[in-house]
UniProtKB/TrEMBL annotation:
The keyword Oxidoreductase applies. Residues 11-120 form the Acyl-CoA dehydrogenase/oxidase N-terminal domain. Keywords: FAD, Flavoprotein, Oxidoreductase. The keyword Oxidoreductase applies. Residues 230-370 form the Acyl-CoA dehydrogenase/oxidase C-terminal domain. Belongs to the acyl-CoA dehydrogenase family. This is Alkylation response protein AidB-like acyl-CoA dehydrogenase. Its cofactor is FAD. One of its GO terms (molecular function) is flavin adenine dinucleotide binding. GO terms for cellular component: plasma membrane. It comes from Amycolatopsis jiangsuensis.
Amino acid sequence: MDLDIDAGSAALRDEARAWLAEHVPAKPLPSMDTAEGFARHREWEALLAEARWSVVSWPEAYHGRDCSPLQWLLFEEEYYAAGAPGRVGQNGIFMLAPTLFAHGTPRQRDRILPPMATGEQVWAQAWSEPEAGSDIAALRSSAVRTDGGWLLSGQKTWSSRAAFADRAFGLFRTDPGAHRHHGLTYFMFDLRAEGVTVRPIPQLDGEPGFAEIFLDHVFVPDEDVLGEPGEGWRVAMTTANNERGLSLRSPGRFVAASGRLAALWREHGRPASAADRVADAWIGARAYQLYTFGTASRLAEGGSLGPESSVNKLFWSHVDVALHETALDLLGPEGEAAGSWVDGYLFSLAGPIYGGTDQIQRNTIAERLLGLPREARR
Ligand SMILES: Cc1cc2nc3c(=O)[nH]c(=O)nc-3n(C[C@H](O)[C@H](O)[C@H](O)COP(=O)(O)OP(=O)(O)OC[C@H]3O[C@@H](n4cnc5c(N)ncnc54)[C@H](O)[C@@H]3O)c2cc1C
């Protein structure tokens, strides 16, 4: 790809840099895994939207700026370099929205995207179930036909911030006779609808960052089915590929963190013992950045995200853990105190789990990219 940045993209980057310098809160917002922090992050989403920075890659008609994938990547780099808050709207904006663009109807897009862009409606991902995490096709939650829609029943778990979110998207079995990933349908539902119970699950730090969701004959109208009934697996792959392979974890986040790590190393007297690890983290973040530029070029030329997403996921999750471990080692006993490096470290530990564990990404790489024999499955 051509890595020279054209004048329009450079102007966009400068505009973003100036806006962020003026608006990023001087003090970090409280954690979005708490009710107060969630509300503050929602306000931040509204501010971003007002200046048309919340969904830069979307069409202008939906609050976006029609940015190319490369321009979006440049924006993300500025965003994280400025130390801007985490995105409470991320599940909707970076996972559900690309799915709506690929499989939704124009009416669904008109109805769902505007309040998503402004943070007025925040979405949770309701995929995992007690017996269906890695093996999502083993899910048991079901939907049965009723007048004008469907009745959803079952249990979802590990749903990030569902305790505070407004709506959720998930897969339900609509054909009990069909095998595994056949007979599934992709639904969007209201977390405050009759028949929905959301129970927070505290994390190790006590914050109610997760929730389990119980559904008891919850009515969902036909207009909230995404894609065709029975086609849920195919639709879900668009969401999963965006979670692993592009939009949920853009390289800007890791490039910024590796820059902060290099600064920390200098502040701590440039210890030779850590030099290689700091360099590895920095190079790893840059390698991920360049790989993602390649993905962006592929998409710009009409390509799509596929099983290569698993390479991305494995790569960034490892870079993130190594980077934060190095920072804590540099900090020594000081690293035990609460602070952004400890928070970042604890969150990095989840990277090899959410969005599909490392083991599952390795299976995908082995079987679908390298063509190795499939492992025996039940
Ligand atoms: C911070 C965080 C946020 C999350 N947010 C959400 C969310 O918002 N919404 C949501 O739906 N879910 C969410 N999850 C859940 C996450 O997607 C699941 O935890 C993940 O898919 C793993 O599923 P599981 O926990 O059921 O583990 P299991 O599937 O039970 O796996 C347990 C272990 O066995 C290994 N294993 C399983 N099958 C195989 C195999 N075939 N080959 C090799 N090894 C295997 C796994 O890799 C893992 O190490 C989140 C998780 C975390 C940590």
